[in-house]
Write a structure and sequence with these properties.
It comes from Candidatus Cryptobacteroides excrementipullorum. Pfam families: CinA, CinA_KH, MoCF_biosynth. This is CinA-like protein. InterPro entries: CinA, CinA-like_C, CinA_C, CinA_KH, Competence-induced_CinA, MoaB/Mog-like_dom_sf, MoaB/Mog_dom. Strands 2-1-3-8-7-6 form a six-stranded mixed beta sheet, sandwiched between helices. It has a five-stranded mixed beta sheet with strand order 14-13-15-16-17, with helices on both faces. Strands 10-11-9-12 form a four-stranded antiparallel beta sheet, sandwiched between helices. The chain starts with a strand and ends with a helix. 42% of the residues lie in helices and 23% in strands. It has 424 residues and is α/β, with parallel strands linked by helices.
Length: 424
């Protein structure tokens, strides 16, 4: 099985000016093609650093993917560095890329300047994969065994994310033609409601008993929960399917309802699917989450089929005047209470006529907490056609993370409530 290293070039990455999304997209594509990614690296616009770093990666990997540093300005020095690395003696003009440059610039009403046309000049040691979305081509450098001790290939792509992503199919196609790819199998299990440490303890014996060659990774996220990924890096696909399914049977018996999906998805997508398939509708009343639950729900394509609307009742006056919560409920129990959040859920369900509603009221922090009601406390109300229930959870994170966890917990409680209701 070939292995690969992914490198990004540019000072703007190292100073945090931009986020590197190219590496994650290429890693996903390479893994799906049976190529194991050994590491991801970023280094700045320094010619010697680029050359020495790439030499090391080529010695240790079959494939090296490089993005960035191919612009028309003088500070983009990747191309001359690659020319030196590959032993190039001259540059040549690639006519296909030059034609693309003319088409792109002329379609924008721009003149083709010398600095633009120079993008089509490439070292004579490389092959070219045309970049149809931008001006800098993909350069392919192939090295035989004598240089780095084995045959290896370097692909240099522009750093603009949509251009790099657009070139992925062509690069993967070239890799498949020149390398014997393996079979990497990944199975994703999405869980919510268990901290990573508690989940690890619950499934520790199961994990220890996994067959040789099967690996488990924990990938926690405040909104999606803990993603478990089972990986097998060799074998035949039909065998891997069977082996993983056998292990999943045992896992389901251990953590059961904490599993909300056996694919890479989100709570809001799972809730949406339940509502859509059952023909039910949803509304939301939010206080401490400030509209985040509604945002997550409506981020799912097709959510208009089941989502009716929301009330962001941050102020008590809105809770009273819009949702119809009696003033004495809030004065007696407080806005952050079981009594208040139950009335919030019932109120928004009544206003919208939805089948289900979920509501939140809490203290996101860092201030506003008391000994009785600490910062990080959230009350969640769930109203279904059969009953109203309330739940409370305390998180100990910063304000942003608390709001994320409040929202995700509300979605998980809603998910469980819908499933329970549909079983009746």
């Amino acid at each position: 099985m070939p292995n690969a290293s992914i490198c990004t070039i540019g000072d703007e990455i190292l100073i945090g000016q931009i986020i590197d999304t190219n590496s994650s997209r290429f890693a996903s594509a390479l893994n799906a093609s049976g190529i194991r990614v050994t590491r991801m690296l970023s280094f700045g616009d320094d010619r010697q650093v680029i050359i020495s770093s790439l030499e090391k990666e080529l010695r240790e990997n079959d494939i090296v993917i490089v993005t960035g540093g191919l612009g028309p300005t003088k500070d983009d020095i990747t191309k001359p560095a690659l020319a030196e690395l590959s032993g190039s003696r001259s540059f040549r003009e690639d006519p296909v890329q030059l034609g693309i440059i003319h088409r792109i610039l002329e379609s924008r009403g721009l003149d083709v300047l010398d600095i633009n046309a120079a993008q089509a000049m490439v070292p004579d040691t490389c092959e070219v994969i045309p970049n149809r979305l931008g001006t800098a081509p993909v350069m392919v450098f192939r090295f035989t065994g004598g240089r780095f001790g084995h045959d290896c290939t370097l692909y240099s792509l522009p750093g603009v994310p949509f251009e790099a992503e657009g070139a992925i199919p062509d690069v993967i196609g070239d890799i498949r033609r020149h390398f014997r790819t393996g079979d990497i199998f990944h199975k994703t299990i999405m869980t919510y409601g268990l901290a990573e440490s508690k989940l690890s303890k619950m499934i520790g014996a199961w994990e220890s008993a996994l067959p040789a060659g099967m690996h488990l990774a924990y990938l926690p996220n405040p909104i999606t929960g803990v993603r478990l990924r089972l990986s097998i890096y060799s074998g035949r696909h039909e065998d891997e399917d069977r082996e993983v399914e056998e292990q999943l049977k045992t896992l389901r018996s251990i953590i059961g309802d904490y599993i909300y999906a056996e694919e890479d998805t989100t709570l809001e997508a799972v809730v949406g699917k339940l509502l859509k398939e059952s023909g039910r509708t949803l509304s939301v009343a939010e206080s401490c989450t400030g509209g985040m639950i509604s945002h997550l729900i409506t981020s799912v394509p097709g959510s208009s089929e089941y989502y009716l609307g929301s009330v962001t009742s941050y102020a008590n006056s809105v809770k009273e005047n819009v949702l119809g919560i009696p003033e004495e409920i809030i004065s007696k129990y407080g806005a952050v209470s079981s009594e208040c959040v139950a009335r919030m859920a019932e109120g928004v369900r009544r206003i919208t006529g939805s089948d289900y509603s979920v509501a939140t009221s809490g203290i996101a922090g860092p201030g506003g907490g008391t000994e009785e009601k600490p910062a990080g406390l959230v009350w969640i109300g769930l109203c279904t056609p059969r009953k109203t229930e309330t739940f409370n959870i305390v998180f100990k994170n910063d304000r942003k993370r608390n709001i994320e966890r409040f929202s995700a917990s509300a979605l998980d409680i809603l998910r469980r409530g819908i499933i329970s209701d549909l079983k009746v």
